[in-house]
Amino acid sequence: MSSPSVALVVVAAGRGSRLGADLPKQYLPCAGKPLIAHTLEALIAARAWSAATVVIHPDDHALYEAALSRLPEAARRALAPPTPGGATRQASVRAGLEAVAAALPDIVLIHDAARPFPTPALVGRAVAAAEAHGAAAPGVKLADTVKQVDAVGRVLGTPPRAALRAVQTPQAFRFPLILAAHRRAAAEQVGDLTDDVSVAEWAGEQAFLFEGDPDNFKVTTMPDFTAAEMRLMRGASETRVGQGFDVHAFAEGDAVWLCGVRVPHTHALAGHSDADVALHALADAIYGALAEGDIGAHFPPSDPQWKGAPSHVFLAHAAERVRARGGAIVHLDATLVCEAPKVGPHREAMRARVAEIAGLDAGRVSVKATTTERLGFAGRREGIACLATSTLRLP
Ligand SMILES: Nc1ccn([C@@H]2O[C@H](COP(=O)(O)OP(=O)(O)OP(=O)(O)O)[C@@H](O)[C@H]2O)c(=O)n1
Ligand SMILES: C[C@](O)(CO)[C@H](O)COP(=O)(O)O
């Protein structure tokens, strides 16, 4: 028998409300690139697809294009233009199925963008199960006892655990079966089915489970995201630490820029750019860990285009160099050395701004301050110094 043609639909139109970040979770930077880039790279490496589309929210085109730019050229070529999604996962899947219908696939695999660990073995089992049964999903045994409860937590029953499975994606189907089931559900306004096997069941089809993979978890909450990032980073082989140091003298003015935050003060800091001593030290700490020179090599002070430049440009460039090398920033730590202004009241705003510029979670950024007990230039209030450390993972 000839091998079946297999299409791929990846659903990525959700908002990630349970994770609660500024961006939908699939676009959050995770171990150096957006989460969805890991998912797509894994799927495209797993096999050749006869057609493949990613279903995205209409507001997310720029985020999606940025994520695609992190894929190897061959992987990008394997994907058709994205398909606009719907208000529910079910509606998004249906849109994806309609988008690949013209390719007349024998089989379709439907996968959540929020599951970044689909292996070739799992994909292989999914295709085989769809061929054998028509409708199938990966299932894993439960480690915990399960209770059925009412709205106030009263226990109503304890279903026998041995007969229960948690289901994952990729879910796999003979294409005409699942397209017809989704079309019928939409026509009959049944829109609350949370996975595609449920759609097939609703349509009267017999579905089967095949062996899932406990590592193929869905990123739903922030702890899931952190676990995914740790797992992806374990694949990166090298940890590097870099240091940065910078000093700027006070000049006339009424505010200083520190960590990308404007802090009212009796003076400004003098410099060719906006003189943000902390962002300069942080950028140098990253260049140092990369062994890619220093800020002056990338942004020569002799070049007039950097006169008065906002220093977030420098830190963003350094962070981008890490991503371009396939790495990730694990941690940034800055210590400001000054008698004044007081850093404490601005610390959280500074951490948040540095995290935003470098594309990190704020939990990976530390900002500290100290005086020199009135000794030296900082003690005499002649200027501000900053020491910084970066920790990177590189392939
Ligand atoms: N209208 C929707 C809702 C969800 N999804 C996708 O379905 C997958 C599984 O959904 P879930 O984990 O619930 O993601 P979100 O809907 O983004 O999360 P939340 O419910 O927390 O908002 C995700 O890849 C998500 O992007 C989708 O394509 N279209
Ligand atoms: C499809 C799914 O991932 C299977 O476990 C799950 O049902 C998605 O549910 P959600 O409500 O969209 O998180």
TrEMBL record:
One GO biological process term: terpenoid biosynthetic process
Site annotation Positions MEP for the nucleophilic attack: residues: 161, 218
Cofactor annotation: a divalent metal cation
Site (Transition state stabilizer): 18, 25, 272, 371
Keyword terms, alphabetized: Isoprene biosynthesis, Lyase, Metal-binding, Multifunctional enzyme, Nucleotidyltransferase, Transferase
Boundaries of every 2-C-methyl-D-erythritol 2,4-cyclodiphosphate synthase domain copy: 240-392
Residues reported to bind 4-CDP-2-C-methyl-D-erythritol 2-phosphate: 246-248, 272-273, 294-296, 370-373, 377, 380
MF annotations from Gene Ontology: 2-C-methyl-D-erythritol 2,4-cyclodiphosphate synthase activity; 2-C-methyl-D-erythritol 4-phosphate cytidylyltransferase activity; metal ion binding
EC number: 2.7.7.60, 4.6.1.12
Pathway of action: Isoprenoid biosynthesis; isopentenyl diphosphate biosynthesis via DXP pathway; isopentenyl diphosphate from 1-deoxy-D-xylulose 5-phosphate: step 4/6; Isoprenoid biosynthesis; isopentenyl diphosphate biosynthesis via DXP pathway; isopentenyl diphosphate from 1-deoxy-D-xylulose 5-phosphate: step 2/6
UniProt cross-references to InterPro entries, sorted A to Z: IspD, IspD/F, IspD/TarI, ISPD_synthase_CS, MECDP_synthase, MECDP_synthase_CS, MECDP_synthase_sf, Nucleotide-diphossugar_trans
Reactions catalysed according to its record: 2-C-methyl-D-erythritol 4-phosphate + CTP + H(+) = 4-CDP-2-C-methyl-D-erythritol + diphosphate; 4-CDP-2-C-methyl-D-erythritol 2-phosphate = 2-C-methyl-D-erythritol 2,4-cyclic diphosphate + CMP
Similarity-based family: Belongs to the IspF family. Belongs to the IspD/TarI cytidylyltransferase family. IspD subfamily.
Function in brief: Bifunctional enzyme that catalyzes the formation of 4-diphosphocytidyl-2-C-methyl-D-erythritol from CTP and 2-C-methyl-D-erythritol 4-phosphate (MEP) (IspD), and catalyzes the conversion of 4-diphosphocytidyl-2-C-methyl-D-erythritol 2-phosphate (CDP-ME2P) to 2-C-methyl-D-erythritol 2,4-cyclodiphosphate (ME-CPP) with a corresponding release of cytidine 5-monophosphate (CMP) (IspF).
Name the record gives this protein: Bifunctional enzyme IspD/IspF
